[in-house]
Amino acid sequence: MSELFDAVDALVASRSPLPPPAERKRLRAAHGLTSDEVATALKVRRATVSGWESGKTEPRGPEREAYARLLEKLAELYPAPADAAAPAQDVAVPATFTGTPALTEQSLSTGPAPEAAAMTASENTQISPAPVAAAPAAAPRPARTTRPSSTSRRPGARKAAPAGTPAAGTDPRFENGPLAVVDADSDGQVLAYCVGGLVLDVPAKSIPALVDWTLKEAKLGQPKLSGPGKDADPLLVLTEAALERYGLPVTLTEEERLAGRLPEGHKVIKQVTRADWKLTKRGFGPWARIYRPTQSSERACVQLCIPSWNALDTRHWGEAGQLPPAELARILGVFASRVMTPRGSTAVTGLELMTALHPPTRASEPDETGKRHSEHNPGSLGKDPVDPAPCEAPDGHPLLKDLPRFHVRGPEEKLFEEAYDWARPLTDAECLRRNLVGIDVNMAFAAGANGLIVGLGKPTHVKNPVFDPKLPGSWLVDLSHVDLSRVKSGKEWVELDSALLPSPFTPKGERPEGPGWYATPTVAYAVELGYEVRPMEAHVRYENGRYLDAWYNRLRDAYIATMADLGVPADVPPEEFLAAMDGYRQRDPGLAIVVSAIKATVKGGLGKLRERPRGEGWRPGEPWRALSRPTWNPHLRASVISRTRINEHRKIVRHAAFTGQYPVAILSDCAVYAVDGESPLDFLPYREGKPLPGGFKLGVNPGLVKHEGTQSVLWGEGVREQFKAPELNLARYIKDGTVTDQDNGE
Description:
Blueprint: H1 2-13, H2 21-30, H3 35-42, H4 46-54, H5 61-77, E1 179-184, E2 190-193, E3 199-202, H6 207-216, E4 235-238, H7 240-245, H8 254-259, H9 267-274, E5 278-279, E6 289-295, E7 298-305, H10 314-317, H11 325-338, H12 346-357, E8 361-363, E9 374-376, E10 421-423, H13 428-431, E11 435-441, H14 444-449, E12 454-455, E13 460-463, E14 473-478, E15 486-489, E16 492-495, E17 515-519, H15 520-528, E18 537-540, E19 544-545, H16 549-565, H17 574-581, H18 584-587, H19 589-608, H20 634-659, E20 665-667, E21 670-675, E22 686-687, E23 690-691, E24 705-712, H21 713-722
Helix pairs in contact: 3-4, 11-19, 12-19, 15-20, 16-19
């Protein structure tokens, strides 16, 4: 009887149900498997697997049962569309793919720009505010494979909705997501890996044809984020295999790397030119943009990202550039949906996000003929650059060209609002403590931008002004009389040990010795501490607003959502928060990369507001490319940094007044305390689960703090002794105890 049962089992296995051939290929590609890998696992030839996927042959015997099991497992990870969930069958069902409607027209500036950083406001990319699910196992949305030709067919396709029908809530123009990772398999077939496990067959044989296909049939891009804004251009990420397939080098030569582009005579650039496409003035580099000038109401522009040319900086994107195409598409897709489609480095993207949320122009009301015109968009920085006040201009700016060649500007000539880099020797009592514990402010500079009133127009010079804390600008005022030994904290005067505190007015924590230029938040804090201020002059902005609020909200939501996906929810008790933060990066390394990129977008975007010259023969006193951008605005950067530093000092004062504990080192948003325990809970005051009002609070939200690291007091004293530096900033090394030149910061 057992032999009969075995025969029955073998008979059933010989007819194990299989999905259609096209679905077999989709499932393999969605998981990043090659034909060779599948063939090796099933102990067959690669050509055999290719035959199964093309429908030319069908598996038999034990190979069929194993192949069916593989596809069943992959189908659980990458389900087909709900409306295409017909029973699996081996009969080919022809299907036709139709092209997409033309993309909406948008103008594209080709003004000078160093790398993607200096792309003008008219090039901003927009995004959809809807978040994308980012679970590592389940696909965020159904996947399908299409062939991008109206005459091509999909053998074995299941019955599905007509081509071009979007998922619920999806813009039909961009139903396949914001981007695709373009790869070439061992058979020479080019595939485009999109978000959600979607894989598209790419028929293009050249870069110009690839651009054409992307704009006409790929259905890639994102809707605009702001009413007057512009839709996002599609982003194509080219793998090394795709580069070879399209005649591009896998890596740049040293000369090309320094130039940031391929030479003008490269054969691919000639192909692009012959096809009537253009490159922006930054050329064909790691973040190339290929476009045609605007015609009628059609916009034609595609962004390229080339990881092997160092487009994805490992400092912020980690090993993203080395990931399989499907995983890289997932990571970039999450970032694109929650922040924006990357436009260049994280710094460039941070700056472009500001413009995307506040486009410089909008359409006017119809005139008497019914025609609309472009006009200034209120709340934006406009389309024209604005000179800073002389005190806000960095050294070498054209406003300072008449200064003597080697003149060094002091505090009374130069605004110097920077993050903290302060440390002091430990007291005798602190040396008897066991450990040094560092706490780090989450998204500190983003939190500093929240609700901040900044200037939107030109500065106005005023003599002997009355200080107004609601008026953004730069003020020349003497704050040397502010004594930290007796200050107001909240509504009460408190006594402090000023020798153990940094001054809130200078990055190095030194007490001012006379008049200096300060941003509005710094001067307002002096008033808050209970001291009178009498500015001698000021450069103020009467046209102002909360320009960075939407930028902050977008980045905050992206950060909190991604941390929640990593198992770190908001609004949990401090003990649960610390436990959730322990090893959170290992839960999904891909999403951990997204978190790093979001943080870098904040810091880098603010840094770009005062971008310095980038070579190209620049000489002091001459303009440099970044000055042509409306978003080159050192006033904004100084205001955010000032507010961030003051926010941190306020919490430090509140903590010292309540506990008698003082920091021993501060680096940017990280503060280190000498304590007997090993955790922030050992020195942060909590009563019945509630933190000290106005003090430090543990949590994932921007402005709250997390545990940065713990090292022994003996380690700290040993490091300072080793380097013969009693005031070495231990906050720089508190995370893992390794002494390097790098800033652990965020």
